[in-house]
């Protein structure tokens, strides 16, 4: 595709709201640098933020260089530092999460409601390849969303129709420098391997632009399917923080059932990522056969989807187990068998397994209240009903 400055500027004018300050997540790399300058060319008011991940010795100097470049443009810019100790596991994923949290915090502090990200159609193609590598379903193969909300901030990706090389050619044509992060060539990271695989696939006619188009096609198919999934959500009845499967659930097509269960597991466990495809398949097979099974901190038992007792967490962000808003005196813990013996839970008409993983307020071994069972002076409500989770997104 030819390099067309007007086309790129048009992507920004069409993809970002006019009349408000736009936050730009600016790493100093080619994509985000092009995003910043295209915003300016589009006449948008912008402020920028750079996250120094402290993963390389050069990162502080690079962030300072980005700050100096913004100062030369007369733009307000801040550097946020990811303070961390020793890192293990998926470092790039941890860095991404930290970056998004720091950027969202910066935007809220500045009163900025919208932040632009510099992802391109190359990123979209690489995301699709990585989805194929993990045998992802339709949702996982639909690529990056054009926009999403996080911690009260809208994040938009206005350059998903632009190519990485196209953006760099635009920068070169205007003499605008950028910094190349050496980690983008480190084959230890899956995205780098996907990038190299994409180059190897070009002789077959499989290009970034083509794969980005495929991801868009799949995203539209998923959006249409989501309407059916939301309609089928009526087969799941929410009670005491658990979900009862209605008899009509079995009559839904397999993919509808699969996506409903994924939404249910996400609502129950609050996991950042869906379970692996093979684990989900085993769980669905057990459900079809009426067997008990566990998955990602959740449990299926006799037509109910509920929290697995051993996976329950304490108070996080004011919510017990990440879902329950509990008011009343005492330490919040699950009722468990001990709590069930101390209250009349049978009057609820709900299964023992469901009631055992509801919150109780305790003073040592003394049960002060079991809100879901109507015992004691306390309340407990699930912060976000199931019909507003996943199915309405």
Automatic annotation (TrEMBL):
EC annotation from Swiss-Prot or TrEMBL: 6.3.4.19
Cellular location(s): Cytoplasm
GO molecular function, one term: tRNA(Ile)-lysidine synthase activity
Database matches in Pfam families: ATP_bind_3
Superkingdom, natural source: Bacteria
Annotated keywords: ATP-binding, Cytoplasm, Ligase, Nucleotide-binding, tRNA processing
Binding site for ATP: 27-32
CDD domains (alphabetical): TilS_N
Keyword match Protein transport: no
Free-text comment on this protein's domains from its UniProt entry: The N-terminal region contains the highly conserved SGGXDS motif, predicted to be a P-loop motif involved in ATP binding.
Family membership noted in the UniProt record: Belongs to the tRNA(Ile)-lysidine synthase family.
NCBIfam families associated with the record: lysidine_TilS_N
Name this protein carries in UniProt: tRNA(Ile)-lysidine synthase
Lineage, top ranks: Bacteria, Pseudomonadati, Pseudomonadota, Alphaproteobacteria, Rhodobacterales
